[in-house]
Amino acid sequence: MSLRSPMGRVLGLGSAKDGTAHWWAQRVSAVALIPLTLWFAISLLTLPALDYGTVRLWLSAPLNTLLGVLLVAVLTYHSYLGIVVVIEDYVHSAGSKLLSLLLLRFLHVLVGGAGIFAILRVAFGS
Amino acid sequence: MPRPLSARDRPTSPHLQIYRWQIGNSLSILHRLTGIALALGLLALCYWLMSLAGGERTYALAAREFASPLGRISLIGWTFAFLYHLLNGVRHLFWDMGKGFERTQRHASGWFAALGAVALTVCIWVFIWRSGP
After folding, report:
1. Residue A68 domain flag
2. Does residue A119 register a pLDDT over 60?
3. Which stretches within chain B are classed as H helix?
4. pLDDT for residue B5
5. How many percent of chain A have pLDDT more than 90?
6. What is the arithmetic mean of pLDDT over A17-36?
């Protein structure tokens, strides 16, 4: 039995073949971010100082490099998932919706990519 | 002749302008606002990381930006936004598991998230101010 109305079927509306994927991705990334963000915040707060040498030394320790890359990656993903919903809720015209979604996708890849690149550069030296 | 389905007077959900203001919707709106603020925080985090990769001079430049009045206010704002989004996010995860839906539980956990975030923000910045230069 289908729950879709005949009119909806004629207009090509209905299932976006997407299901609950977005909802799940948001929850899973949220759960992953609990330990990652807490690790990052507590690490920065307990470092003896936040000067150049101390922070570089801390970030280039293997475990910190790994967790740092994961933090930026998951943070970027979660941020993208959240901002997409905001755009979908408030931007109504199809053209500007598509444009802003595209722009935000590019921006997130750019910013997240820059963050990960920076961490790896610190870890592996220039 | 029956009117088309879309023109019938069907019940609609209360619109934002006539919605009675209460803790539930306030905290929900705050969750979204802090989320947007944190997206900007991600931008600042990656700028800071890039400055660290750039060398001693660019790092000092970024550090000066963050130490400026606007930088400090932003950092305190992001601290609150992070803590609130974290605590309220955990609240949402409990709801997703079907727990904590009772009126008293909803209100208690809501106040806990809001006041907890304020208290922790104060604690963290007192700690930074006392241990920093």
Report:
1. yes
2. yes
3. 23-54, 56-67, 69-96, 103-131
4. 57
5. 79
6. 90
Using a CB-CB cut-off of 8 Å, the residues of chain B touching A30 are 89, 92-93
Residue B64 near residue A68 (C-beta atoms within 8 A): no
- Residue A119, classified by CB atoms within 10 Å of its CB into exposed (0-12), middle (13-18) or buried (19+), is buried
Q: Please indicate whether residue A7 or residue B123 has the higher confidence score (pLDDT).
A: B123
> Taking 60 as the threshold, does the pLDDT of residue A41 lie above it?
yes
Cβ of A34 within 8 Å of Cβ of B38? The answer is no
Count of domains in chain B? 1
Q: Is residue B13 part of a domain?
A: no
Q: What is the predicted pLDDT for the residue at B14?
A: 67
Number of domains in chain A: 1
Which positions in chain B touch A37 (Cβ < 8 Å)? 82, 86
Q: Which residues of A touch B66 (CB under 8 A)?
A: none
The phi-psi region of residue B55 (left if phi > 0; otherwise alpha if psi is between -120 and 50; otherwise beta) is left
Domain of residue A67, CATH code: 1.20.1300.10
Which residues of A lie inside 8 Å of B (Cβ-Cβ)?
27, 30-31, 34, 37, 41, 45, 50, 52, 55-56, 59, 72, 75-76, 79, 82-83, 86, 111-112, 114-115, 117-119, 121-122, 126
Q: By percentage, how much of chain A surpasses pLDDT 70? A: 93
Q: Say if the Cβ atoms of B52 and A27 lie within 8 Å.
A: no
- The domain of A62 spans 20-124
Range of the domain at B48: 24-131
The DSSP symbol for B3 reads P
Minimum Cα–Cα distance from A76: chain B residue: B42
CATH at residue B80? 1.20.1300.10
Residue A65: pLDDT above 90? yes
